## 1
Amino acid sequence: AQKVTQAQTEISVVEKEDVTLDCVYETRDTTYYLFWYKQPPSGELVFLIRRNSFDEQNEISGRYSWNFQKSTSSFNFTITASQVVDSAVYFCALSELSAGGTSYGKLTFGQGTILTVHP
Amino acid sequence: NAGVTQTPKFQVLKTGQSMTLQCAQDMNHEYMSWYRQDPGMGLRLIHYSVGAGITDQGEVPNGYNVSRSTTEDFPLRLLSAAPSQTSVYFCASSYRPIRQTNEKLFFGSGTQLSVL
């Protein structure tokens, strides 16, 4: 069975600090997809990134960066120079593939990490 | 283009009552699903559908029914509500198998359900 673990339940930082959210996953699939979603206080789920298991290139998008390491089954998310607007719950998720090798978005989510950025 | 629309946003039920959570998408998405979100447990898949007339169970299907008579709609039915079904429910959709494109799940804004 697939499993996603976000060991950090809550993180509190002061504005402008860098913060890394950890994500460790378990899967028997050789091909899979990893996601990060943000849930701000308003409650909606905001897509941040999708990563294919066969592409280990790290990605940077503005203040956000993601470190995918297949060898350690980790997909960590770093926010550089955090801002108050980054305060949210962040979810890491892993997709399940059908017998035909496609993913219909059956995601296994981690427990979520509550990030609070103080001014 | 409204995306994924869920109704109602809030609902209070008494134990044993039945109700239907509505989900509609106007993006012609083939895939739709329902998740529930509980504190400390992330989101868990209840039921999903890969197209009209096709549904299947997810991780936590007990107590819920679904049907998919059209591409646009995917209602979630609680037949006899229980306090354990107090949760926030999210509907999600995507256009095609995620592997084939850089597709992602589009989520609705959620329904907060309380069962007393």
Note: Chain A has a mean pLDDT of 90.
## 2
Amino acid sequence: DGGITQSPKYLFRKEGQNVTLSCEQNLNHDAMYWYRQDPGQGLRLIYYSQIVNDFQKGDIAEGYSVSREKKESFPLTVTSAQKNPTAFYLCASSLRGDIYGYTFGSGTRLTVV
Amino acid sequence: GESVGLHLPTLSVQEGDNSIINCAYSNSASDYFIWYKQESGKGPQFIIDIRSNMDKRQGQRVTVLLNKTVKHLSLQIAATQPGDSAVYFCAETTGNQFYFGTGTSLTVIP
């Protein structure tokens, strides 16, 4: 079945460490997105990519980095520069130019310990 | 100090009753809207969508109403079931980027 897979489901990070969250899709979608979700707040866009080897900052990109070397994969690195990284992270994908066809992954919960 | 998250609006309904969840959107130019359901620890699931040239759309047990005059969106769930317990939130877009609401937590009482 086609879908979008995020891993791991739970991730723990020590202060000062970088961690990378995985997002893989086999939907042949061109565009991929990373969102952050905090309690009582709407999803906020971190980064997005419309095509391979290209990506743009979203509303809260500081302290995060991404790469898009393959169409299927859009990993997110939470760097030590992100001051409050504990959150639920969601990846989504859509056909290029078809923002209406969003598919979300199941999320990764990142906790700083 | 410890940060405290905002509290979600909550709605509790008896099993079998109808539920109405509301959303006020911000951009009068938004032309497409989606309602999502999100269960604890999971990603959002698409429920129903509506374009701005419509004021009502029905799905299976769900209806979305759009009032562009007051920028208001509502989701009606008929004969609410325990499996409907989740957070529901709306999303709006002009076609460029989605903006998401904070959500309403629905609890169905058996």
Note: Residues 38 and 44 of chain B are 4 Å apart (CA to CA).
